[in-house]
Design goal:
The protein has 127 residues and is mostly helical. It is built from four helices and no strands.
C-alpha cells in the first residue's frame, strides 16, 4: 500500500467538518448529562452522534468519496468503535485527575481527532 501525502485541503476540510461533529458531540454530551445519564455513557452516545455527522461531511467533502460503499461504512464503524473507547477512557482518566469537564472533553477530542483523521485517510476512505 502506497501512503499518500497529507493534503492541506484535506486537513483544513477535516478540521472544519470535524468542528461541526465536535459541536454535536459537545452539545449532546451536556444534554445527556443534564437528562441524568451517567458521564461515561453520555460521552459514548455523544461521540457516536458526532461520528455520524463526521461520516457524512468527511465522506462527501473532505475525502471526496462520492461512491457508496458498504465497506467504507464497516471500516468507519470499526475505526470509530476503537476511537470511541479511547475517547471515553481519556475523558474519564483526565476527569479523575482534573475535575474540569471542558479540559477532559478537549483532551479526549484532541487524541481522537488525530486518530480519526489518519484512520479515515488511510483506512476508511482510501482510494
Amino acid at each position: 500500500m502506497k501512503v499518500s501525502r497529507i493534503k492541506k485541503k484535506e486537513l483544513v476540510r477535516f478540521l472544519f467538518g470535524g468542528g461541526s461533529a465536535v459541536a454535536v458531540d459537545y452539545l449532546m454530551y451536556h444534554l445527556l448529562m443534564a437528562a441524568g445519564i451517567g458521564m461515561d455513557l453520555a460521552k459514548m452516545i455523544s461521540f457516536a452522534c458526532g461520528a455520524a455527522v463526521g461520516f457524512v461531511i468527511n465522506k462527501l467533502w473532505t475525502f471526496e468519496s462520492a461512491a457508496f460503499s458498504k465497506a467504507e461504512i464497516i471500516r468507519y464503524i470499526l475505526l470509530y468503535s476503537c476511537t470511541s473507547l479511547i475517547n471515553s477512557m481519556i475523558n474519564h482518566a483526565v476527569l479523575l485527575l482534573f475535575p474540569a469537564e471542558l479540559f477532559g472533553f478537549l483532551c479526549a477530542t484532541g487524541v481522537s481527532t488525530v486518530l480519526n483523521f489518519l484512520g479515515q485517510k488511510y483506512f476508511v476512505f482510501r482510494k
